[in-house]
Structures are given as structure tokens and as C-alpha cells.
């Protein structure tokens, strides 16, 4: 009993010491660590791919790539085909990649450069933004759940809420201010278009999900995964599902994202110019499991260069919003009754954040 107390006290002390540096994982890399601190060690079972893929799953290969036709379909048939592809991907994978999505490739590169520039600037400048106060318009930190998760991730992040109340320019760091504003505006436009297609895929009016305020809020998390000296002992991001309606993810060319389906981890390959889209828990809840929010993770970075990604979550998160969400009436019946109780986004987000990335689904708490 006493040993457990000492071990847990040591862990808390090490977590606090790491957090107090305000330099994150990059600070450890810059200091030249060759062994990762034990707060980052994950159990080996969490790191492995439990078993080789059986032949019937090998044919699945990986998540589908869908052509959005520049968001202007030439005819009704092409739009209908895209809707069918999205319907199948959202129901079976919860993930898909989109190309010809209408966001310029130049802007995608500028956004990734902006993330890299912020994280690679002087530690003294970055420290001014380091915080665990999630009410701030912009904050930089390492591991939002540092003190609640079983193990820390080899990752630093800056976060900003871009909608419904966009930050003032002076709230954002000058080094990436302009690109954050421009990219978030483009993501909002792309998101509204995707919600139209998802509404149609559910057999609903194209504006149904938008009218439910699914595209009202946007939280942007810009991740930085430094090269890891012991990548087989840790993760870049633990196994989790997203607490959003929809997530729009901009990855770079360094792979590491994996999706868990039927007990197997599938790599998400790099597709040049593509954006990764995934269904969040809130969309699974309101579609009554018609669309699924699959768990995913990011492996420790084995590359010699830092990996960056930008995850934009369509959710109002912990902002006050009285609207109550439950399974959409048109999607339930006597044969298919509601599987979830009603909740607010804030209640859901608070539960998710308190629980941390512990490898269990936050949806379980809301099951009927």
C-alpha cells in the first residue's frame, strides 16, 4: 500500500515538474533526452496491433478517398454518387479522406508552416501562451489531460476557438495569426458543405444538420509531434474518439494516424492534398448509430522531423449552449428506438474532458 502511494506521488511530482517547464515535449527534445521520462510510458498492450489482419479484412485496406468535385458537382448524378460514398464511409469507417475539397493546396501548406513556426519559435515567446485555462481564446500546452490520463502523449498543442465567436486578431500569436484566420474560415465553408452531404446521406433535408447548429462552433487544435527517441514506448495521441459532430483534420506527409475497426488498427495513408474527415461522438449520438465515431490514435513519431497536424472540431465545446441533443426523430422508430439520452454539448464535453483519453468511449455514459 505504501509503495503505491510513493509511486503515485512520484508520478504527480514528475507531471508537475514537466508542466512547470512550460516548454512541452519539444523542450525535452531540445534538451537532448535519449530516454523518454516514465510519465510518457504506455502499457505495451496499448501500443501493439493485437493480431494480424484476417483475409476478409485485408480487402478493406484503408479508409476511402472521396472526390468532392471542387464543391461544385457538374450534375445531380455526381453529387448523388458522392453522397452515397460518404454514407457508406460514415456508416462503416466513420473516416474518409476528401480531395478536390475547394481549399487551396497553397493554404494547406501555409497552415502547416504556421503550426511549425509557432512550435519552433523561442521557448521564451511560447511560454507567454502556456496555460491550462481553457476559457482563454488561445492557449499552448502539452497534453490537455496531463493530470488525468494514465500516460502522457509525446505531443504539444496550441488551441483556439474560432467560432461561434472568432478571436480578435490581437488574441492570436503574430507568427501564425493571418493563416489561422484564413484557414478557419475555409474550414467553416467546407464543413457546412459536408454537413449538407451528410444530411442527404441520412435521407434528410440538406440543411437539417446545419439547422441543428452542428456547424456553429469550431475548435482548432494544432498539434506538434517531435521526433521521439523511444517511439515504441509511447504514443503521439492515445486511443480515443472525438467529442465533436465532425472533425476536419489536416495531416502532413509523416504518417502515424491509425483507425481502430473491428479490433484491428488500420493506417491512414498520406494522400497528397487530401483532408481527413471523421465522424465525432455527437454525430453518432444524434444519428442513433447510423454514422459511427471510430476510435483512433497517433503513433510515436519515428521520423527525424516533427510531424504536425491541424484538427478542427465542429462543436461549441464547453461554451454555454442550452440546446439539447438526442437521436434525430426522423431516424428513430419502434423498430429502432433511441439508443442515447438527451444531453447538451457542454455536458458531453465536460464529461469527455474530465475522463481524459483513457481508451474508453465517452458515449457509454449517455447510452440508454
TrEMBL record:
InterPro entries assigned to the protein according to its UniProt record, in alphabetical order: DIOX_N, IPNS-like_FE2OG_OXY, IPNS-like_sf, Oxoglu/Fe-dep_dioxygenase_dom
The Fe2OG dioxygenase domain, residue ranges: 216-317
Acetylation among keywords: no
Q: Which keywords has UniProt assigned to this entry?
A: Iron, Metal-binding, Oxidoreductase
Does the keyword Oxidoreductase belong to this entry?
Answer: yes
Could you tell me which Pfam families the record lists for this protein?
2OG-FeII_Oxy, DIOX_N
Domain of life, source organism: Eukaryota
Family annotation (Gene3D superfamilies): B-lactam Antibiotic, Isopenicillin N Synthase, Chain
The positions making up the signal sequence are none
Q: Which family does it belong to?
A: Belongs to the iron/ascorbate-dependent oxidoreductase family.
Q: What is this protein called?
A: 1-aminocyclopropane-1-carboxylate oxidase homolog 3-like
Amino acid at each position: 500500500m505504501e509503495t503505491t502511494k510513493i509511486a503515485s506521488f512520484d508520478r504527480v511530482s514528475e507531471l508537475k515538474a514537466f508542466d512547470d517547464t512550460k516548454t512541452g515535449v519539444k523542450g525535452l527534445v531540445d534538451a537532448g533526452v535519449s530516454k523518454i521520462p516514465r510519465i510518457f510510458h504506455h502499457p505495451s498492450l496499448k501500443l501493439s496491433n493485437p493480431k494480424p489482419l484476417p483475409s476478409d479484412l485485408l480487402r478493406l485496406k484503408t479508409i476511402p478517398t472521396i472526390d468532392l468535385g471542387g464543391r461544385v458537382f457538374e450534375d445531380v448524378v455526381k453529387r448523388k454518387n458522392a453522397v452515397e460514398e460518404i454514407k457508406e464511409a460514415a456508416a462503416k469507417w466513420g473516416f474518409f479522406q476528401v480531395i478536390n475539397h475547394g481549399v487551396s493546396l497553397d493554404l494547406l501548406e501555409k497552415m502547416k508552416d504556421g503550426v511549425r513556426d509557432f512550435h519552433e519559435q523561442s521557448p521564451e515567446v511560447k511560454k507567454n501562451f502556456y496555460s491550462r485555462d481553457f476559457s482563454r481564446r488561445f492557449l499552448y500546452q502539452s497534453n490537455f489531460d496531463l493530470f488525468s490520463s494514465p500516460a502522457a502523449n509525446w505531443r504539444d498543442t496550441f488551441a483556439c476557438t474560432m467560432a461561434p465567436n472568432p478571436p480578435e486578431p490581437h488574441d492570436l500569436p503574430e507568427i501564425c495569426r493571418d493563416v489561422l484566420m484564413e484557414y478557419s474560415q475555409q474550414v467553416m465553408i467546407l464543413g457546412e458543405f459536408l454537413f449538407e452531404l451528410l444530411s442527404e446521406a441520412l435521407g434528410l433535408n440538406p440543411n437539417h444538420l446545419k439547422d441543428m447548429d452542428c456547424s456553429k462552433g469550431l475548435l482548432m487544435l494544432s498539434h506538434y509531434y517531435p521526433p521521439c527517441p523511444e517511439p515504441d514506448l509511447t504514443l503521439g495521441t492515445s486511443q480515443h474518439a472525438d467529442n465533436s459532430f465532425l472533425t476536419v483534420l489536416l495531416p502532413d506527409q509523416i504518417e502515424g494516424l491509425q483507425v481502430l475497426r473491428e479490433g484491428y488498427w488500420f493506417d491512414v495513408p498520406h494522400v497528397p492534398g487530401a483532408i481527413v474527415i471523421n465522424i465525432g461522438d455527437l454525430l453518432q449520438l444524434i444519428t442513433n448509430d447510423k454514422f459511427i465515431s471510430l476510435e483512433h490514435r497517433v503513433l510515436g513519431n519515428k521520423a527525424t522531423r516533427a510531424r504536425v497536424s491541424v484538427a478542427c472540431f465542429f462543436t461549441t465545446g464547453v461554451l454555454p449552449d442550452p440546446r439539447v441533443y438526442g437521436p434525430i426523430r426522423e431516424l428513430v422508430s419502434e423498430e429502432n428506438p433511441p439508443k442515447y439520452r438527451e444531453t447538451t454539448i457542454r455536458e458531453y464535453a465536460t464529461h469527455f474532458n474530465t475522463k481524459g483519453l483513457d481508451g474508453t468511449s465517452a458515449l457509454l455514459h449517455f447510452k440508454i
